[in-house]
Amino acid sequence: MFTRENFLQICSAADLRDMDWKDFEWFSKYFFEYFGYERTHVTGKHGEFDGDGGIDIEMYKNNEKIYVQCKRWHVGFRGTILPLHVIRELGGCLLRDNVKKGIVITTLNLDESGKKEAKFMNIELYGLAEIIEKMKMIHPEFDAQKKIGFLRKIFLIMKAIYRLFVG
To answer: Is 67 helix (H, G, I), strand (E, B) or coil?
Structure first.
């Protein structure tokens, strides 16, 4: 499992992209905690083929409930830009549960149409550039261009193999 210690070791955009989706959800939890969000909770999957109801993290700031959707993708349906349907799906969850604010955090880039749609639905967006900017506040040496080191690659491969056989 991805831990707070793992969070502190993230030092490049390549590290973010090389995470699996579960680790990215936990990364996001620690990321938001660092910036003052409280009672962060990574929602569980309801079964092997069931989703999480559209919500990856539930958290609070100033006693306001906030839903978070995490998307760790290399490429989306529109290339490297966050697809609008992700924003709209979170907007539907906010409406369904009467939650006033949402956040999408993604390793994809953002475009103006997505930003406009998100603003209309009271959804904050953190694309790759925004994550990098915030990570530099945590780790001034954070480098968006840094290539992943050989030993780190070996570690990630071994971790993936372990998950395949152990779960």
So the answer is: strand
Length of the chain: 167
Rounded CA-CA distance 60/98 in Å is 14
| Total count of domains within the chain | 1
Reported as a single tens digit per residue, the pLDDT across 3-43 is 988 898 888 888 888 889 999 999 999 999 999 999 999 98
CATH of the domain at 152: 3.40.1350.10
Query: What does the DSSP assignment read for 82-129?
Result: PPHHHHHHHHHHHHHHT--EEEEEESSB--HHHHHHHHHTTEEEE-HH
* Domain span holding position 90: 4-166
Contacts of 138 (CB under 8 A, 6+ apart): 34
pTM score, whole prediction: 0.81
CB 56 within 8 A of CB 42: yes
pLDDT one-digit tens code per residue, 138-159:
888 787 665 555 566 666 677 7
Please state, in angstroms and rounded to a whole number, the distance separating the CA atoms of residues 135 and 44: 26
- In terms of Cα–Cα distance, which of 58, 78, 60 is closest to 69? 58
